[in-house]
Write a structure and sequence with these properties.
The structure holds two protein chains of two kinds. By secondary structure, chain A is an alpha/beta fold. Chain A is built from ten helices and 14 strands. Classes of the chains: A alpha/beta, B alpha/beta. Chain A binds chain B through residues 24, 26, 60, 63-67, 87-88, 90, 92, 94-103, 107, 111-112, 114-117, 119, 143, 169, and chain B through 10, 13-14, 16-17, 20-21, 24-25, 28-29, 183-186, 188-195, 348-350.
Chain lengths: 313, 350
């Protein structure tokens, strides 16, 4: 699927989560207001949105922690009313760490492994593998309460992955984790999706959202926009551009404008907006710049732009 | 059929996983383990000999064989006792054995026999004082303890304190533990795992029971060997009562934890849940000494039944069958608490 095409919201057998018209009220407040969303199998799907937009409520409803007031949802092929039947195929990492500070790292992992019926050699191997992945293998005998915030977060992720789930729900999983290890996490996530697992993640880190195949932008309990990171930027009205440094700014600007390009003078340079980077060759042939710089808008800009649209900005 | 067994097997595995985790956690919390083990001794030394109370509603048998009109008038004139006139001393003895009388006085020419229920020293003392106050001249009293033992206050208090200590600590530790599950997010994670709510509560029960056994045995040993409280019945039966009470305390703690947001708020349950049981369940003084208007409250407090059962087992040698009403009452507390705790956990789902 092309990055520039918005992904259609159609339920099919390839959907790990297919939700339609979800409604959840807390008193007068409608936290989910007709949310329709589909998460394809083997995808990393990132939910973005301002605080209170309903991201965590949606994730909690997938595991049955929230009783919905309306709508339909299927998770791993089961209606939400029967989610307990497939609960062992879901891994859920909450914003709280859900660890026992008075148990060692190994004991924490053994406990969660036992809940999923993982025993003996398989359990040992799985714990070794995951502790290595989160770079905590040297600390396995330490009490979890003695760990730093980032280490605690890594252990929480390892416990969530212990049973090799088909659907991984990660609510802000990399808070406090250093950039090097975050890269390791994402490599691991990619290996999981390559193996057919589906990951639904919420994050406030835009560079992480850029790594996801699909980004869904939620606002006021609805899905406002959905697509690849590039498609979301386009939806927010953001386009890539080339900053050019030329000898005759005025003449070059006129030439480019007459060829249909949007040009803005920016100090001693020209910013030329492109529909896609494929247009770059044409611009360079016309302008013949002394120097240039390609500029791709960030997802953060798109996020802020979409938020501003909602506020009438 | 195989899948049912597999399901049960998996369920048992999960219960054991929770139990093992609870044991590991408590084992590492040395201060709590120390407190559980040594606080009974401290409590008994502190309170054991210090309490007494005014009594009312005591059932007293009166056998009048003549010759003590003055004393008879004095006894009948005291409002605190319900007098039952009986034909013979043997009738009185039988009714005391059946627990229908708290004591009896046999008035005869030249002699006064006071029959006492040995398991309630405070009542016994008040009866002796009653008779002595009414005697018109020096006359030796023939005191007969129906259970053949002149009990001291500690003998009566010890068995009940055993239950109180177990209830107090299990309730508090359970409430704090379940509160932590909620605040640290593990409860939410459990809901998203194969662990069911009843499995979680049962796992806790199993894990805690290890410490309840240690606590009960320690307290029992101190009560019997240090303070010399008799153990006429089976220690295993006494232990069974304590374990059942501990189970009820655990599920009640789990239930009440729903109403606390912090550990400080859990401490606030002490005056609400624990203190009424200290005062109203006959741990320190007999139920008869409590004003009748608030006595119905005693019947809805589990310690009332554990105190009664433990005294019956330890001081009267009662068997499991003989304390079955108390066992049934404690089981009912457990069942209601279990249901309430499980439903309250379910209520977490928004």
């Amino acid at each position: 699927m092309s990055d520039d095409i918005l992904i259609q919201n159609e339920a099919s057998n390839d959907m790990t989560v297919a939700a339609r018209d979800l409604v959840k009220r807390f008193g007068q407040l409608k936290v989910l207001d007709g949310l329709t969303i589909c998460i394809p199998r083997g995808t990393t799907y990132c939910l973005l949105g301002p605080n209170g937009s309903g991201k965590t409520t949606f994730i909690r409803s997938i595991v049955g922690l929230i009783r919905l007031d309306g709508g339909e949802m299927e998770v791993l092929g089961r209606p939400i009313s029967r989610v307990r039947e497939i609960i062992s195929r879901i891994g859920y990492m909450t914003q709280h760490k859900a660890l026992y500070p008075d148990l060692t790292l190994q004991e924490n992992m053994e406990f969660y492994a036992s809940l999923y019926g993982i025993k003996g050699a398989r359990r040992r191997a799985r714990i070794d593998e995951l502790l290595e992945m989160v770079d905590l293998e040297d600390h396995r005998r330490r009490l979890a309460g003695d760990l730093s915030g980032g280490m605690y977060q890594r252990l929480s992720l390892a416990c969530t992955l212990i049973h090799d789930p088909d659907l991984l729900l990660l609510d802000e999983p990399t808070v406090g984790v250093d950039p090097r290890l975050r890269r390791t996490f994402w490599e691991y996530f990619e290996s999981l999706t390559d193996g057919g697992a589906t990951i639904l993640i919420t994050t406030h880190l835009m560079d992480e959202a850029e790594k996801c195949r699909i980004v869904g932008y939620m606002k006021a309990g609805r899905l406002e926009a959905e697509g690849s990171p590039v498609a979301i930027k386009r939806l927010a009205g953001l386009r890539p551009s080339i900053r050019l440094w030329v000898d005759d700014s005025k003449a070059t600007a006129d030439l480019l404008a007459s060829s249909g390009f949007e040009v803005i003078e920016s100090g001693d340079a020209l910013d030329v907006f492109l529909d896609s980077f494929n247009d770059a060759r044409t611009v360079l042939d016309l302008a013949r710049p002394r120097d240039l710089k390609l500029v791709e808008p960030t997802l953060e800009e798109a996020f802020l732009r979409l938020s501003d649209i909602g506020r009438g900005g | 059929m195989i899948s049912i067994f597999e399901g049960l097997d998996a369920s048992l595995d999960r219960i054991l996983a929770v139990a093992l985790r609870v044991i590991r956690q408590l084992k590492r919390d040395r201060r709590t383990v120390g407190l559980i083990t040594f606080i009974p001794i401290f409590l008994m030394v502190l309170f054991g000999y210090a309490l007494s109370g005014d009594m009312s509603g005591i059932c007293l048998g009166l056998v009048d064989e003549g010759g003590q009109e003055g004393l008879r008038g004095h006894i009948e004139g005291v409002d605190d006792f319900e007098i039952l006139h009986l034909g013979s001393a043997s009738d009185a003895e039988q009714l005391i054995e059946e627990g229908r009388l708290n004591g009896a006085i046999v008035l005869g020419p030249g002699q006064v026999v006071v029959m006492l229920d040995g398991s309630s020293p405070q009542i016994a003392t008040s009866l002796i004082n009653l008779v002595r106050a009414g005697l018109e001249g020096p006359m030796p009293l023939d005191l007969r303890y129906i259970y053949g033992y002149d009990l001291e206050m500690m003998d009566s208090v010890g068995p009940a304190v055993l239950g109180l200590v177990v209830f107090f600590f299990t309730f508090i530790v359970s409430a704090v533990s379940f509160l932590r599950e909620r605040t640290q997010g593990s409860l939410e994670k459990f809901v998203a795992s194969p662990l069911s709510r009843p499995e979680m509560v049962l796992g806790y029960l199993l894990g805690f029971s290890v410490f309840t056994v240690i606590q009960s045995v320690t307290t029992l040993v101190v009560v019997v060997f240090v303070f010399g409280v008799p153990m006429y019945g089976s220690p295993i039966t006494a232990l069974a009562v304590v374990l059942l009470l501990g189970a009820a305390a655990l599920v009640m703690g789990a239930f009440f934890s729903n109403f606390a947001k912090t550990e400080f708020q859990v401490v606030q349950f002490i005056p609400l849940v624990i203190l009424p049981q200290v005062v109203l369940t006959g741990v320190w003084w007999p139920l008869q000494s409590i004003p009748e208007s608030i006595r119905p409250v005693s019947s809805i407090l589990p310690l009332t039944y554990s105190s009664e059962a433990l005294r019956a087992v330890m001081l009267k040698g009662a068997s499991l069958c003989e304390i079955m009403p108390d066992i049934f009452a404690l089981s009912l507390f457990f069942a209601i608490g279990f249901l309430a705790a499980t439903l309250a956990l379910k209520r977490e789902v928004g």
